[in-house]
Every structure is written in C-alpha cells, then in structure tokens.
Amino acid sequence: MNPENGAKLPTVRTCGADRVLVDAVRDTPVEVALSRLRCRILCVIILLIVLVAGLVVLRRLTADKPVTYHSDAEHFLYGSIGSEPGGNPLAPVGGMLPPYQVFVVLPDMFPDRLPGGYASLGLVYETKPDGKPRDLPIGISRRQRLGLDLVGFNCAVCHVGTLRTSRDAPHQFLPGMPAHQLDLQGLFAFVLGSVLDPRFTPDNVIGHIEAKFGPMNPADRLLTRLAVVPQLRERTLLLQAQVGVLFAPGSLQWGPGRVDTFNPYKSLQFGWNLELLPPPELAGASDFPSLWNQAPREGMHLHWDGNNISLDERNLSAGLGAGITPATVDYAGVARVKNYIQKLPPPRWPEAMPLDHEAAVRGAETFRRYCADCHDFVGKWTGQVEPWEKIGTDRGRLDSYTAVFSANQNTLFAGTTNRFKSFRKTNGYANEPLDGIWARAPYLHNGSVPTLADLLEPPERRPKQFYRGYDVYDPVKVGFVSDVGEENGKKYFLYRTADEQGNPVAGNSNAGHAGPEYGTDLSSADKQDLIEYLKTL
Amino acid sequence: MKGERSDPRYWKQFYRWFGALAAGCSLLLALGLSFCADHLVRLLGVGGEPITWTQLCGELLILISVFYVPALVDVDRFRPHAWIGAVVSHGTIFLLCTMGVIGFGAPKPFLLWAAMEFFFGGVQIFQLTKLEQAENGRTVPPNGGWDGQPRVPWKPVMVVAAGDPDGMACWRRAYFWLVWLGIAANLIFVLPLVFVPHWMLRQLGVSAEPVLWAQMGGLLLGLISVFYIPAARDPLKYRPFAWLAIFPSRTGGVLFCTVAVVALAANEAFILGVSLDLPFAVLQTFVLCKLASVERHGKISFWRAYAPTGIAVVAAAAILSIIGWHKLEREYPQQLANGSIEEAFKYGSIGTEDAQGLPYWLWLTLPRVFPEYLPRPGGYAGLGFLWEPGSELPIGFSKRKIGFDRVGINCALCHAGSVQIPGEPLPRYYLGAPAVTADVLAYQKFLFACANDSRFNASTLMPAIARQTRLSLVDDLLYRLVLIPATRKALRDQSHVWTWTDEPGRPPWGPGRIEPFNPVKLAILHQVDPHVTVGATLGTSDMEPLWNLDTLPGRAFHWDGLNTNLTEVVDSSALGDGATPKSIPRPFLRSLQNWIGTNAAPKFPFADNINKSLLAQGAKVYQVECARCHAPSGADTGKVIPATGSGSAATDPNRAQMWTAESAAAYNNYLGNLKWKFKSFRSTDGYVNVPLDGLWLRAPYLHNGSVPTLADLLKPVAQRPAVFWRGINDYDPTNVGYVSDAPAARANGFRYDTSGRGNSNAGHEFGTKLSDPDKAALLEYLKTL
After folding, report:
1. In Å, what is the CA distance from A185 to each residue of A199, A323, A445?
2. Contact (CB, 8 A) for B765 and B513
3. Is A285 in contact with A252 (CB distance < 8 Å)?
4. Contacts across the A-B interface (CB distance below 8 Å)
C-alpha cells in the first residue's frame, strides 16, 4: 500500500483517527507487474499439475500389465493369455469375468447361490506356504487393464484336473489333465446370475470389497459406483442374451468336465442367435481333452472331430473360448503356454495305486494287435479322422461343428499372420494317441463311459448313468469312482445317457467304439491285461 | 601470446571452427541415418525396426545441425542458442544414449554417439565458459570488436522493444503464444516417447526395436522445441531462427512424415507428424510475415508480405491432398494366392471396389453386429456363398486396397456353383456353374437394412471392429470420421433405388436367381433416358452358367438374347456389378472372357448312376426331339424364338417383356463416345435356345428356374411340382436336378411357388408326350451332356 508520490489519499474522519479508504489506493506498476507474473507462474504450475495428473490417469487407464511368473509351469497355472477384458476403457472388448475384486467377493455376496464357494464348482485353490489358500484358483489369471485389476480364464482352468488315490488321500492336481471336476456351466451360471441379481448394487459390492480387501480409496470407490458396476451389468446382460439359451432349462447339461466347445463360440464371436439353430446342432457337449505332450501332435487332426491340423491355430481358437479376442490376446503369454505344453510329459501311473507289471507286458501284445493302428504314436491311422459310420459314437459333437461355422472361422484373426486357415469340416472323430490315458477319464469324446473297463464292454453293458466330478480314483477299472452321488455335503452330477422315460439324451450316447476290432469281444483275462498295459501309457 | 586467451575474439574463433566441426559431424551422422539407415545400422550391428524411426532421428538431427549454424556465424547475437546447443543438445543426447545403453539394454554402438556428443558438448561448454569469462574480465579493446554492452540476464518472457511501431506488440504476442503452443504440442509427443516409450508406442499403434530409436526421436524433437524458445521471445532479434523454425524445421517434419508414409510404406501413425507440424508451419509463416510488414510500417511489397503465407497455404493444401489421396484413393495391385485364371475368377477384382466397395472391417463386422437382418445364422456363409477352406473371403468377393481395404463382388458370386455328393464332407465347387445356393438379394437387403438401422454409427461399429483388430490411430479416425458416415450414406442412397424389389406382386428372387437388368435400368440407364424405368416389368431368372460361351458363333446371350457380342456382355455384366466406366479393368475381363469362352462344362459326377445301355437310344431320341434347337450343330441353337405364339416354347413371358427397346437404346448410348461403347444391345420378344452343355448342372430348369429336375421337365405341365424347394446343393442323380422335396430341402431350402408372378412353370412341353421308355433313355443321355 504505497501511496504514489505526492498524492494525497482521500481520508474519512472516524471516531479516533483518520482512516485511509482502501479502494482509493492503487498498486504501483511494479506491484502490478509482479502480481501478473505471479498469476502467470501460478497458471503454469496449475497447468503442469493438471497435465501430469492427466498423464498419470491416462497411463493408468491404458496400462496393460499382467502378473508375471518366473516359471513356465506357474505361468501355465496362473499366467495371463490376454483373456481379460481389454481395449478402450469406454468400450471394453473381450473377457467374461468381472474385475478381480468383484470376482473374489461374489461368493461372499451370494452365499445362497454358491454355498461352497468357487471350490465347490471344482476350481482348485493351492495353499501358499503360510497355509492360507491363494486368492485366485488355478486357471484364473490376473492383469491390470482399463485402469483396474481384471481377471480372466487361462488354459489351466479346463486343463488341470484333480485326483485322490483314495478317499482319505489329499487332493493332487496334475497340469494338463482334463479338469473332469470343473462345472463350467455352473460357473457361468453363477457369475452371470449373480451380476444380474438385484442384490448386485454398488453399495453392496463396495461393502463386500472393503470387508475383504480393506478400505478403498475414494477414486476407486467412485469408479466402482459409477463405471464398474453399471458397465458390468450391461456387458453381462449382453453375454446372457448371447449364450443364455445354452443354460436354459431343458438344454443339454454339460456336467463337470465337459463343455459345448463351439456353440458358445458361434454366439460370442459371430453373434449368431443360437435359438435359431436346429436342435441337433446344439448337443455338442464334450470332455475337456488333455494338454500334455503336444509336440508330437503337430500335423495330427486336432479337436475331437479332427477339424484342424495346426497346433497354433488350435491354441488360439481355444483361447477364444477362454475370452481372448484378436485385439486383446497376449501372444507372448500364449507362446509361453505353448512352449510348456509342447514338452509337458504325461503323468505316470501313481506308485500308490496297484499295477501288475507282468499283466501289462501281456497287455502290450493285445494293444499292438487291436489298438496300436489308431492309438499308438506311430500307428497307421493315428491322428486321422475316423468316419462316423465306422466309429459310431455320439453324433452331437460332430454335428455341432458345421461347414458354415468352419467357413466363418476363416475370418478370425484377419489382418494378422495368425488368420485361421486350417479349420475343416470333417465327417467323423479323430484317433488320438493314448498318452496318459489313465488320467483322461471319463472316456469317449462326450465322456459317456466312466472307466476303461466299461469301455471294453459292449454298449449295452456300459453304465446307463453314473456320477461325474468325484475325483477318487478306481485303480481296478481305471477311471474315477462313479457311483458316489454325495460326499461331505457335496453332490455330484448324475450323467444320464437316457432320461427317466428311457428316451436317449441327445449328445450323451455311450454307443460306439464297440465291436470285435475295438476289443469288446476279448476274454476278460485279455481285457484285464490290456487295462494293466493302458495304465502304463 | 598470453593476452590471447583473455581475448573473447580468440574464443569466438575457436568456438566457430570447432562448432563447425561439431555441426558437420552431426550433419554427417544425420544424413547417414536419414538416407542410408539400413546400411548404417547393419554396419554398426544395431537393429532398427521399423527403419522409419532411425530415419526420423536422422531427419531431426539434420534440423538440429542446421540450428547449430547461426550461432557459429554470430555467437554474440545468438548466444542463447550457442548455450542451448552445447549444454542442452549435446548434453541430453549424451545422457539418453548412455542411460539407454547402461540402464535399458540398448545396443552398444549408441555409446559411440554418446561419446561424440560428450566430446563436442564438453569442448563447446569449455569454450563458451572461457568466452564469457573473457568478456566479463575484458576492458574495451582498442580496435573494438566487442560491443561492451552489459549482458542482460535472459528470461523466457516476451520482449516488447521500446522502438516498436504501433501494432507490433500484438503480433509479437501472437508469435510468442503460437511458438509456445507449438512447443507444447511437440511436448505431447516428446515426453511420453522419452519417458514411457512402450506405453506411447502402444497408443500410437507402432513398434520400435530397439526402443531407444523412438526415445531418441522424441528427445531430438524436444531439443528442436528448445531451440524455438529464444525466437519466441524476440523474433526480430533472432529472426534467422524464427524462419529456421518454419523452414526447414516444421516443413521438414511435414515432408518427412508424408514421404515416409506415402512413398516408403512407413506405419500410418507417422501421419500424426503432419498434423502436428503443418498447422504451425502455416500459422507461423503468416505471423512472421505480418511482423515483418508491420515492422516496416506497412511499406513492404504485397508479395513480400503475403507470398510466403500464400506459398505455405498452397503447400499445406498439397500435402493434405497427397495424404488424402494416400488414405482414400491410392490404388495398390491386388495380391492373389496364385496367378491362375481360376484364382482370378474367384477372387480377382472386376473394378467394383471403386464405387461400391465396402470398407473391409465394416464388411467383416456387419454380420456380427446385425445378425437379425440375415435370413439365418451363419454370416455370409449362411447366405449360400461358397467359401473355400482357408480362404479369407467367400468365392465371388474381391478385396482390393484403394487407399484402404475394400471388398467388392465379382463374376464368381453368381457363377460358381456347388454340388454335395453324399458321403463327402464338403461340397464340390464348379467354377462357371450357376450359384444355385447364393441368395444375392438377401445380401443386398442385409446391407441396406444395416445402413438404415440407427445403430449404424461409429459408437456401435467401432467397438465391434475393436474386437477383431487394433486399428492404428489414423485408421481409427478414418473409419470413425469418414468411412462409416460415407458408407451409411452410400448404402442408404442405394437402398432407395432398390425399393421396387419389395413391391407386392414381386415374389422374392430366392437363392440361385437374379434380376439381371431391372437394377441396371434404375442405377445406370435412367440417367441416360428418363423413360427407362422398372415399371411393372419383372425379369427374375436363374443365374446362367459360364462355359463354352465362344464355341457357337452368332449365338445370342442372356435368356432373352438381348446381345450377341460376348465382349459387350462381359463388360456390361461388370458394369451391372458396380464397376464404373473408369474403373472397369477391360484387359483382365478379356482374359476372363478367354477362359469362359473355352472352359468346358463339368461332367456328370455320378458315373455309376448312368444306365449305359440306354445311351444309344437316348441319343436317337435327342436327335429327333431336341437337337434342332439345342445341339451345337442345330439349326436354331443359340437363336431367339418368340416367347408367345406358334413356334414358341410358351414359357413365362415376363422375362422377355422386361427388356424394352428404350432400354436397349439407352444402354447403347450409355458410354457416350468411348471406344468400347455398346452397339449390340437389342430388345427381343423371345427366349434363346440355349446349348445344353453341362445340362445336369443347370438345374433348376427354364429361364425362371421353375422346374426342379429334367424328369419334371419331361412331364406335362399339370404334373410338374407346383411348389418345391430350391437353394440347397444336395443332388438327385436319378431325376437329374437338385433335391427339391426331401425333409432337408424343406428345412433349409427356399420355398418356390410357381403360382407367383413370373414363376410359372408352364411351357416347353417338348418331349412330354414321349413314351416312358423313350423318356428314360433320353434322361440317361441328357446326363452325359
């Protein structure tokens, strides 16, 4: 408040003293210049802060960081193949599961819909060294994308199975083994139904997340309330519309260890309305196959119906089933899985279970005479497609893969060198090598025969119904114990080849792979020896 | 001499010569990186993928070398630039190279560059420091040389000189803000490229291997931005730099990016460089010219004041046109799997992409976004188009890049047929045969329905495309701003020309049938002669086979024989498919014509089904009953016979009545004075007696496909099926034709009702009165044609 030189400031007489009127005082030019400079500097600083903050937010929203694992084995179990939702935060693509924190708290939010948690669906939780279970089961990967921690499926969810050598033995899991215990249909139904449940509100979600993970920071809370929950509901509605028909009452129950490989694919990748497809095309549920020892399989007809001879295309196609899209796939992650499964050896028959070595040697001869041509690695017909008229197994899987669908697959991964070129419609099922066959129960493409002993019986004598999902092994008949309906409160799935009225269930027939050349007419001694030999593969 | 070291002139000389050396070395390296990038990187054993980043670094380094020069010439006037060059430029390049190699594993040869910069920068810093020391400690020399003015500390604030003419301040201010805006725009690229290169490269959609090249590019751009700063403050004092900032700096960036993308097939993301530099180049030119003009109190020639801006604007327009041409119009040769004529027939372009090609990613995703507009699930394969295993497109579609990838149709869409032999997993394809399963109208209607749906916009379609591929930023903008709106408008406009197909009383075409000339009337001929319209005419007919078309001289083509010149027929078919007179590839069409002229008809594949003992008798019956009109040597083969009246086959007359004399005249006038204009179009009142080669594959029969099998054709009209199903390719070898009434046919086929207008199966009762044995023998013989 420097008065200009010589100027007399207007004053006002008040009780006591003369007071100067403030608004009569003017700033000097220096002060003006200084304050303008200060303003400018302040503006620049604010601009810089906004810019940096904007860049940080942008960086977070567009970051794409998977959780990485050092060993290929751990990457197979938990690593990401890019199946998490990705792309643009405003318009995410791909993925089938909710974000990480939501996924983890869903069973807590809806205990009535899934009393045993994810483990009751057959998902496997390893325990950490400190004795607590890991936060995510085998087969669920975690990745930071779209500014959030997201989860997705990887190959291990369907290709890691559990096994108990006896009722009291601990559960062991074998990488590459079909996940015969996994109820994938149940998992989808739970996740889709929970997100669409009226109790799935932002408050409820945030409450449960905070209870499990501790307080959320305000930004995350706002993001969850305004973006995550509404967007998730919308995307789930869309998913429900696309594949809901496969879970509707009256549709073919997959049961644990099975999936309808191509029908969800038709809807999710190509937008087909599954309700318009003829019913014979919709009964394609088949067992998960094993994933070990892939290197010798290059050039063989892959998939149950032998529709592709390229391992790379088969891997990417299976990845599409897990939720990747051509735009969000993590090629490095997929390559690492490929590396691992090329060399993964098949599991050996466990020492704890009985094996008669002399019988196995006798059984090798039977195998050579009856089975080797189609099932030995160097067999004449191994890896070739066996026409359906000859093999006679259920047609559902074959009919679910149509020529029109195959033609559409040629457009997947368009614009890249990975564009699918090798898918073909076939007229039968492929002969697979039998490495690790003991661990690939139940048998036939649709898992309709529980044990090898049953497979060597003619179809009339095979079980008409049995339980799937129980992982205690039967070392005599070679397959999982299939007559236990319930244990420790957990119910197992009743697989039926025919319903109560005796009508065959479409897709579940256990006929086929029967007759003299398939060994069903052998003597029981020969069959026993053959089974002992098969345990050693 | 002792006194020398304290004489600023000594240090200036030293700086000048050394600086020239430094600038020269930089320039050499820069030229090497720009023009011999692959040799240089191979020599040094460094990768450079894509090479564009190395070339970009070279180009930026050239500019920096140029920026070094004025400071060498007059180190007093351009002191700030001398310091910037020594400390900021050499210093940061040195830092980035060493940190890149040591910290981030970049290849070792970058250390050579670091060493060079360290050397030059270090020496120059030394020289400048000594120079300043010498100046500060020096008294005025007897022979002048140094202006003796006290050094004013330098601030990045705009100078407002006391002696400025009126109006100068606002232009100075404009220039100041413009340059700083340009620097900020540069920084948007510089900072992320240098500090978070992997993230930035992912956003741009381009890769860089090793990533140090991208970081270096960002750094060099940042250094250039620093060189802009002194001139922002006082463009008149640093006038050379003000002009250098535009030319060659900004213009160099524009030129490099344009040349790289247009001529050197660099990643499209580099077009962003043009969008960055071009506006600033033009605006800065304008402002500098105004400054100069005001400086001289407006006493400056018109040309000196405005010519540079004019040139800049014209150059900018040229660059934008070049880029526009590159993204929208530039033609690339089509690359097919092999050079065979069959491959070209299936997938080769007949010039329809130019005017009617769909952008590839839209073509691909439309069936996934709007599956409800397709008659059944299955995408384009569900419309009955043939799809070879492993092929990117169905047969009959061609993909060609004209600026961007487009999909058009070609002859094979309607002229490639299929037969499913029982027991074989896949149908057999016959090129040239009528496409009996293809529902072409359903395809058209699908596209129109999509375009008329309000969801046909970027916010629905871009996410669908994002599921299939990661479009680069430039392509994303191209689709969003140009291609989606343009396609929507084009399809909507076209759909108005096709509303006649929905008129009541017009049965649907169904698979295997097409209205070949009514669309031509509306799309092409109406503009030549407004009297030519569809009106009530109806010309739906079966697709015809393309074999042996040149073996019968003088024959008339198309069901009603409206042209006798095969060349004109081929050319007009391409025009009918959507080619334009400019885009039609006539030489290619001639080679196709050559092929279909002599391509033999496929033989009946069910050899076991032919009863050979009846063939001789059948041949005799054929000679008596059919040969005159249908045998290659027949007197009337290939000629038009009236549709109605005596001597006619009395088949449905609609097709013959569709093509009028006005239409023919209009088509003959359509091409104006082109050398290849049409001359032979005519209107007939009847139908051609077609040769019967490959008769088994021409099912269903009669021009409107109203009789499913030959056995039915040999029955009197009352006994022919009134309703049957067509469009599936299961074959019935006994009756000779496609299966038309089995459960599979009913489930998957198209219901053909002969009572519909134009669908009558009356007429051609030739041979219906033969005895049964004769008919049987004739049928066996007909299988062998």
Report:
1. 22, 15, 18
2. no
3. yes
4. 104
Instruction: Tell me which chain B residue has its CA closest to the CA of residue A313.
Output: B390
Hey, is the C-beta of A234 within 8 angstroms of any chain B C-beta? no
Which one of A273, A404, A426 has the shortest CB-CB distance to B425? A426
Taking residue B768's Cβ as centre, other Cβ atoms within 10 Å add up to 15
Contact across the interface for B463 and A87, Cβ inside 8 Å? yes
Mean pLDDT of all residues belonging to chain B: 88
CA dihedral (B56, B62, B65, B70) positive or negative: negative
Task: Render pLDDT for B765-778 as a digit per residue (tens, 0 to 9).
Answer: 988 889 999 999 99
Give the integer Cα–Cα distance in Å for B415 and B573: 12
A325 in contact with chain B, both atoms CB, cutoff 8 A: yes
Cα distance between residue A469 and residue A521, in whole Å: 30
CB pair distance less than 8 Å for B466 and A87: yes
Alpha-helical runs (H) found in A63-94: 72-78
Tally of CA atoms within 13 A in the half-sphere of B580 that contains its CB: 7
Which residue intervals of A197-287 are DSSP H helices? 202-213, 218-223, 229-247, 263-270
Q: How far is B438 from chain A (nearest CA, A)?
A: 13
Angle separating helix axes A202-213 and A100-109, nearest 10 degrees: 100
Tell how far CA B453 is from the center of its chain: 24
For residue B204, give the chain A residue with the closest CA.
Answer: A62
**pLDDT band at B424, cuts 50/70/90?**
confident
Query: What is d(CA B387, CA B384) in angstroms, rounded to the nearest whole number?
Result: 9
Closest C-alpha to A319, from A80, A99, A88, A150 = A80
What is the Cα–Cα distance from A62 to A88, expressed in whole angstroms?
8
Q: What is the ipTM, given to two decimal places?
A: 0.86
A4, exposed or middle or buried, with CB in 10 Å at 0-12, 13-18, 19+?
exposed
Mean pLDDT computed over B386-404: 95
Q: Establish if B396 touches chain A: CB-CB under 8 angstroms.
A: no
Residue B196, pLDDT above cutoff 90: no
In the structure encoding, which two tokens stand for residue A133, read together? 């279970």
Pairwise CB contact (< 8 Å): A419 & B392? yes
pTM: 0.87
Residue B163's pLDDT band, with cuts at 50, 70 and 90, is low
Q: Mark which residues 346-385 of A lie under 8 Å from B by CB.
A: none
Q: Is B440 exposed, middle or buried (0-12, 13-18, 19+ CB in 10 A)?
A: buried
pLDDT, average across residues B372-381? 93
Identify whether the C-beta of residue B618 lies closer than 8 Å to the C-beta of residue B778.
yes
C-beta separation of B250 from B137 below 8 A:
no
Query: A270 at the B interface (CB within 8 A)?
Result: yes
Residue B302: count other Cβ atoms within 10 Å of its Cβ: 8
Cβ-based contacts of B459 with chain A (< 8 Å)? 91
Q: Which of A87, A269, A427 sits opposite B425 (nearest CB)?
A: A427
Q: Could you give the CA distance from residue B213 to residue B494 in angstroms, rounded to a whole number?
A: 49
Verify whether the Cβ–Cβ distance B426 to A423 is below 8 Å. Answer: no
SS3 assignment for B685-727: CEEECCCCCCHHHHCCECCCCCECEHHHHCCCHHHCCCEEEEC
Which residue among B199, B392, B469 sits closest to A326, beta carbon to beta carbon? B469
Residue to test with chain A: of B188, B365, B387, most A Cβ within 10 A: B387
Does the structure show a pLDDT above 50 at B40?
yes
DSSP characters over B322-362: HHHHHHHT-B-----SS--HHHHHHH---S-HHHHPEEHHH
pLDDT at A11 over 70: no
Structure tokens given for A462: 């095979």
Residue B235: its H or E element: none
User: Using CB atoms within 10 A of its CB, is residue B31 exposed (0-12), middle (13-18) or buried (19+)?
Assistant: middle
